């Protein structure tokens, strides 16, 4: 099959975002081939540039000034350092917006209006622009003016009420996820919304405004837990490593470590029961169906716990795989990247970097056969592409560029 250009080749994005939710969205667009121009504050740039250690290493193994956090969400972008608060800087950004298909920003509600960079102002000069605003709480509602950060959103949006060990067990209590899932899911939902608006524009020729909120996305992503509540009126509680709707679907302790068993249907439970030497469990009316296993989990699970202690982790993993029962280890990050499946799928790659030479990055999970994602370079240095963009996109002369750069 002939390989075609990446799907968003020819699409230009103006990125006025920082930290994670917005940059995660625009990195998706960049991976898909869009030209993403990231506007950063002169001198300091995106807040996450300073969120280290760790830092990207150079070819001699020494720290660069580039935080790993920043590098995780900004590959394939062009960094332009402009002062949005200055009349000249805001004017240049407006000119870039005139040439772009998409603008993504995560300023506080109404924060860009004073610079003439709000949607209503930009729409006047570029009615085809798709303009996506990402905030903690959205553009409307009683909390619209509040700042919103992932950690607090995980709490407010219900995730921490269902994450963590059971309250009646040691270590019980609210727990956040190990990564900023509210930010990441908002970035993903924003990507979906932008691509939908881009497709709709092919019919109407017009852009539109997209209002994305971390709290909305956090609530929406609770998925089955939302419906567990809505259909019963009872708020789900923390269940540790167990599942509210499936049994057994949890972590078990083996003779020498831990593993996950994820039984998703009754035939898998019959196979699991045979593997652990307790085939009679699958014939017991209390456990024959998942519904009954959920109702009687307090009786069933202790029996499974005792059975699982009798063999080593790798023994169980091998036997369960042979029986077609979903199971897996609990890997540390180094084990993740040593895993042959992860290596086979190419989930770690290396890209050119302005100060490191080459820098490791986590690959995109998107696999398009005819128009694959396009990797060009790692996260840019602050202002690395300022002169290039001002020259090629705005037609500034060398004297004008040097005057501007010299004032930063």
From TrEMBL:
<dbReference type="InterPro" id="IPR003673">
    <property type="entry name" value="CoA-Trfase_fam_III"/>
</dbReference>
<dbReference type="InterPro" id="IPR050483">
    <property type="entry name" value="CoA-transferase_III_domain"/>
</dbReference>
<dbReference type="GO" id="GO:0008410">
    <property type="term" value="F:CoA-transferase activity"/>
</dbReference>
<dbReference type="InterPro" id="IPR044855">
    <property type="entry name" value="CoA-Trfase_III_dom3_sf"/>
</dbReference>
<dbReference type="Pfam" id="PF02515">
    <property type="entry name" value="CoA_transf_3"/>
</dbReference>
<dbReference type="InterPro" id="IPR023606">
    <property type="entry name" value="CoA-Trfase_III_dom_1_sf"/>
</dbReference>
<keyword id="KW-0808">Transferase</keyword>
<protein>
    <submittedName>
        <fullName>Crotonobetainyl-CoA:carnitine CoA-transferase CaiB-like acyl-CoA transferase</fullName>
    </submittedName>
</protein>
């Amino acid at each position: 099959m002939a390989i075609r250009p990446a799907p968003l080749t020819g699409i230009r994005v103006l990125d006025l975002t920082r930290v994670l939710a917005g940059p995660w969205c625009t990195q998706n667009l960049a991976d898909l081939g869009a030209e993403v121009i990231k506007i950063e504050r002169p001198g300091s740039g995106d807040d996450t540039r300073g969120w280290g250690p760790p830092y990207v290493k150079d070819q001699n193994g020494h720290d660069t000034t580039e935080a790993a956090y920043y590098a995780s969400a900004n590959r394939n972008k062009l960094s332009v350092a402009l002062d949005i608060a200055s009349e000249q800087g805001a004017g240049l950004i407006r000119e870039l917006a005139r040439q772009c298909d998409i603008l993504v920003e995560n300023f506080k509600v109404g924060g860009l209006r004073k610079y003439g960079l709000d949607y209503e102002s930009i729409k006047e000069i570029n009615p085809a622009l798709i303009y996506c605003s990402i905030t903690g709480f959205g553009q409307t509602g009683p909390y619209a003016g509040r700042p919103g950060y992932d950690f607090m959103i995980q709490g407010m949006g219900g995730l921490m009420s269902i994450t963590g060990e059971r309250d009646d067990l040691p270590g019980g209590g609210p727990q956040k996820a190990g990564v900023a899932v509210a930010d990441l899911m908002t970035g993903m939902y924003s990507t979906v919304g932008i691509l939908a608006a881009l497709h709709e524009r092919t019919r109407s020729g017009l852009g539109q405004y997209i209002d994305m909120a971390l709290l909305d996305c956090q609530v929406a992503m609770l998925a089955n837990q939302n419906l567990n509540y809505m259909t019963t009126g009872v708020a789900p509680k923390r269940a540790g490593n167990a599942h509210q709707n499936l049994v057994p679907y949890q972590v078990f302790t083996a003779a020498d470590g831990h593993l996950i068993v994820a039984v998703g249907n009754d035939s898998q439970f019959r196979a699991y029961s045979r593997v652990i030497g307790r085939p009679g469990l699958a014939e017991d009316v209390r456990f024959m169906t998942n519904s009954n296993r959920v109702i009687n989990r307090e009786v069933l699970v202790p029996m499974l716990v005792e059975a699982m202690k009798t063999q080593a982790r790798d023994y169980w993993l091998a036997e369960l795989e042979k029986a077609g029962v979903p199971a897996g280890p609990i890997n540390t990050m180094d084990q993740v990247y040593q895993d042959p499946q992860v290596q086979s799928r190419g989930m770690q790659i290396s890209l050119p970097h302005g100060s490191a030479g080459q820098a490791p990055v986590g690959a995109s999970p998107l696999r398009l056969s005819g128009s694959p994602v396009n990797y060009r370079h790692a996260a840019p240095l602050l202002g690395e592409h300022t002169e290039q963009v001002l020259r090629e996109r705005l037609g500034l002369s060398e004297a004008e560029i040097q005057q501007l750069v010299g004032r930063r």
